[in-house]
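#struct-help
A.M.: can someone run this one for me? Single chain, 626 residues.
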Amino acid sequence: MGRRWIWVATVVAVLAAAAGGGWWWMSREHSRDAAATAALTRYAAAWHGKDLGAVPFASDGAAKDFTTAVAGLGSAAVTARPGTVHRDGTRATASLEVTWTLPGEHEWRYSTPVRLVERGERWLVTGPGDGSPWHPELPAGGRMSLERSAPTRGDLLDRAGRPLMPQGTVYQVQLDPVRADAAGAAALEQVTGVTPGSVVKALADRKKSGSQAPIPVITYRESDYAPRKARLDAITGVIAPSATQPLGPTRTFGQPLLGTVGEVTAEIVDQGKGRYATGDRAGLSGLQRQYDATLAGTPGIAVVTDAKKTLFSTEAVAGTDVETTLDPTTQKAAEQALADARLSVPAAVVAVDVPTGEVLAAANSPSSGFDRAITGKYPPGSTFKVASTYAYLTRGVTTPSSTVACPTTVTVDGRSFHNYAGESIPGSVPFSQDFAHSCNTAFISLSQKLATTDLTTAAKALGIGAGWARTLGVDGAFDGSIPETRKGTDQAAAVIGQARDEVSPLALAVMSASVGRGTYLPPVLVRGDGGNPRPAPLDGQAVAQLRSMMAEVVSTGTATVLRGTPGGTVRGKTGTADHGVDEKPYAWFTGYQGKVAFAVLVEAGVSGGETAAPVAKDFLTLLARP
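D.P.: on it. Structure tokens below:
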């Protein structure tokens, strides 16, 4: 009996030992599986930062090889998701599901195998038997890089659907710093007219740094390049590769509104969030810049090996056209009128189609700088008397035939106001004559009969400060600002377009178009941005009276220079706006003729009648030519 128990106890002990050993073995194997999985997880996480320096590899140099292999992918982001580990003793296999986010938000996905080996207490990542661990089709030691294919750029279209800036040839004049010297750089400055010393300095900087990158100097359209070609060719180191880009019919056409296209700047690349790469061409200014994402399309992307094997590719997607309301004939007439005036100061002419409210032209002089025709902010001076008169007529303050004296001066709260050049109109003067001769004192004498919101309301009804800047389609557009007035001198100055009143030339053209149409319509320059707004009706009697008085401005008033202008009756209003001590005033004329409303601004003139009105007459005369 005792022997049997000893035998049983022995068997139990043996079985317990065996079970314990099995449990230990299973626990150890599970730990090895977990360690291999953890190693794979850490490896996958390291891909996210594109830095495998902390990954334990079985061979030296793997992390550096990864950095070299993917450097050509630039700033493309990458993620890697680990697959299931299959372990066989001291070796294990798995895969990584890799996703690269390439420029243009293209996702490149692939699976690449992973091998791991156990050495001591560590699991190390090792490469495949052949090829590269970074992509299954990349040769060992191979490198990947991005190649881009440019899409066809869309056009800015005119109101008839024709390109405003069709593709044309340009020559990018550059200087090769390896072959050029300071004398050649100075000669290049003289031929091109760029800032003296700029190319010489750029060449010195290149030579000091050892950079062999060409120095960009100027880009010419073919008609500008041809007469300079021989002189440029004679300068050692000058190169002029050709390219195509959107070009207006002339260098100044539609500038700065339409803008330009050229090689992207470093700033554009930095702000593009991967959309642009060095060497790309894109809109640099104006509508070309504002709508670049639409016009430019999407470049094709390819990932290629250094052996020129394509691992991934997408086709380029052509850009989409952007429709504008501009009319080339009207734009050319506006620009020619500014050129004919031979002004030495900035100026603008803007035109609006009366029936539709669409912008026909926005001309600026000079053509560089900002778009003062649409984004400028200026006191309107007496052109604002159109809105003041609309307030007077609709609020019952006066009528065209009511007598309103026009003395030399009038005083409000101790401040003296006067007319242009100290003028006055003797005798009993009907208000229509005050309007035609732009009598400040008459307007100011009525000013205190308005409520403090009446000018704001009247201006908005005609389109000034009406909120259309948001839907015009042009960044930075200014629709005007006519704040609520304060009784006294503030309101007195506001009725004659001074105080805190501000407009753009386009805002005044919109006002004139509203009078010509009899309703207010928000202006449109880029189609599709503003929907289809319904016209807002104006007071019919007041509009009819305004039209008559605006005609008198031309027939007998301050703009008689426009009498006999081809194309029919011109209705308008002059303006002379003070804006600082010892500064020449802003000279204005706004009005409409038939279906075209317009505004002219000259930033430093004598008066609206003497300086701006002749530009308006030339513009309308050019427009009337067959």
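A.M.: thanks! The two ends are 134 Å apart (CA to CA).
D.P.: also worth noting: The mean pLDDT is 93.
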